[in-house]
Amino acid sequence: MTKFSNWISKASGQFLLAFLFPILSFSQEVQSISGANSPQDDMNPVWIGNNTLLFTRAFHPENTGGATDPGDIWMTQRGSDGIWQEAVHRADLSRSGYDFALGLENVLTLLVYHQEGSAVGLYQYSKFGADWNFLRKVNLPGLDDLKGQVSGRVATGGKQIFISGIGSDSKGNEDLYFSEKVGVIDWSPPTNLGSTLNTAGQEMSPFYDISSQNLYFSSNMLPGANGKDIYISKRMGEHFDSWSKPVKWEQLSSNGSDISVTFISPTEVIWTSTQNSDGFADLLSFGEAVKLDIPTEFDLPSVSQAIPQTPQFTPAKTERSVTILPIYPLSAVGIPEIKMVDSTVEVEKAVSWFVIDAKNKVEVPFTLSWITENKSFQADVNSVVKISQLQESNVKEIKVIAKGYFPTLIPIGSLKNTEPTVVLMTKAESGSMVVLRDVNFKRGTAELEGTETIRSLTEIADFLLENPELRLRIHGHTDNAGDPSLNKALSLERASSVRTFFTEKGVQFENLRISGWGGTRPVASNSTESGRSKNRRVELEVEQ
Fold it and tell me: Among 10, 16, 98, 503, which lies 20 to 30 A Cα-Cα from 349?
């Protein structure tokens, strides 16, 4: 197994010293904000003063939603010695979905974006001592219509929000949008900032500096670009509908993907970079104080750019002259990245795979099986096959197999046809924990229910028979509704039902132990049905 090319190894769970490394396109050395970096993605930095930096950390086991949580808010602080302290999780600002801070609306009020399942919203949190307390949801009509990787920032003074996402009027992928405060908790619907700034590629993570009237954002607008670069555009009028042609900020742009600029002083800047197209996001700054070489010459857009363009929609399953290709997966690690290629290809592409170790983030060799209603067929991982072909063959699931890892079943509906399908594999080693997917019980009982349950447990049983040396503990969990003692008994009974199923398939009884925790170990909030459903689960822990 090989780590991603040029990926900088990082450690977590211990105090790290800042280290320096060169970047080819930089004239100065840059420094990893070591206290804020981990083996996961660390992005969306927001400086809130008082030597405090908030940022989003993805897929960390301490996130509210666990290792599958796409982003929680974390905090690091810079000491008097200039060293960034080890980051701490801000559970008071995080939920089980994707979260990021937009910045301070005023000195005591922080705006935070939450995306938890289909629920999307912008919320105010009020500072009280060292804690942030939930205040209320604000009204920003149309925010939940923005898809893709949503990111952005509130401008200094708290009167404007600049945000990026994929809207119905986007020029291609993520575009830049603008919203203005119109009431105490009311904001105007997001307005597309137009074709001067937005392209068929990705424009993301806008930050507007009200003093210079410069808009900083990330884009891969140049044909053939392998990653995003930092661009700057100057506001050209009294309103926010006129912008100069974007200029690339060479000082911060590398061979990787560079986004999310935040200023901690007029002469100090922090940003996110992957360094290469399949790396992990780190927070960076210059190792020593340097003069920021910010472009000052800006040109007016051409006439064709200044005139609003009518969106052109490409019919499904037709050819197009410009293809948007993923450089690496958009739904797991790294900053979502696409590449514009001048070629003519079909919109529907062959299924491709990105199979990695969930813990160490390294690629692992794998095999595949196509699963229909009642049969399983060995598949060639190099075969060219499209989702439509699998559907025509009545394939319901794909089984991903890697030696030494628990098998993973991928529903046909979860496959991607415009990007590689990401599969996180859990290695069967001491301390590993996997949640049994698609395992259901009749309501209020320990009786297994449904064909999906039987199929899922059978796959695990077959794996255990192939690895007879494994010793497991089966953990049963419930939500917190009802009597705690009854919940604990029910969770133990459900763990016992799973053990019985495995032993009936031939797994040795002495290799299986059980525990019932009731609702004492939640992985999500019990205040919502979505969270309660996550808490009602059965887990397998490898003990040996």
Answer: 98
What CATH number should be reported for the domain whose range is 348-425? 2.60.40
pTM: 0.58
DSSP state, residue 93: G
* Beta partners for residue 72, in sequence order: 57
Assign 221 a pLDDT band (cuts: 50, 70, 90).
Answer: confident
Q: Nearest Cα to 462, choosing from 381, 379, 376, 537? A: 376
- What's residue 262's pLDDT? 93
For residue 162, give both structure tokens: 């600049």
Pairing of β 268-273 and β 258-265: antiparallel
The class (CATH top level) of 433-542 is: alpha beta
Instruction: Give pLDDT, residue 228.
Output: 86
pLDDT score at 87: 94
- Under the banding of pLDDT at 50, 70 and 90, the label for residue 338 is low
Q: What distances in angstroms separate CA 84 from CA 14, 22, 283, 398, one per listed residue?
A: 13, 20, 11, 44
CA 220/CA 228 separation, integer angstroms: 4
- Cβ distance 277 to 260 under 8 Å? no
Percent of the chain with pLDDT over 70: 85
Q: Which of 289, 213, 214 is nearest to 249 (CA)?
A: 214
Pairing between β-strand 353-357 and β-strand 421-425 as defined by DSSP bridges: parallel
Backbone angles phi, psi at 43, to 5 degrees: -150, -175
The span from the CA of 461 to the CA of 470, in Å, is 12
Asked whether residue 276 carries a pLDDT value surpassing 60, the answer given is: no
Mean of all residue pLDDT scores within the chain: 82
Q: What is the largest CA-CA distance in the chain?
A: 77
Q: Helix 484-504 and helix 451-466: axis angle, to 10°? A: 60
Q: Is the dihedral of CA 361, 363, 438, 386 positive or negative?
A: positive
For residues 290 and 26, give the distance between their C-alpha atoms in angstroms, rounded to a whole number. Answer: 12
Per-position DSSP letters for 366-404, written without gaps between them: -EEEEE-SS-EEEE-TT----HHHHHHTT--EEEEE-TT
Q: Is the pLDDT of residue 321 over 80?
A: no
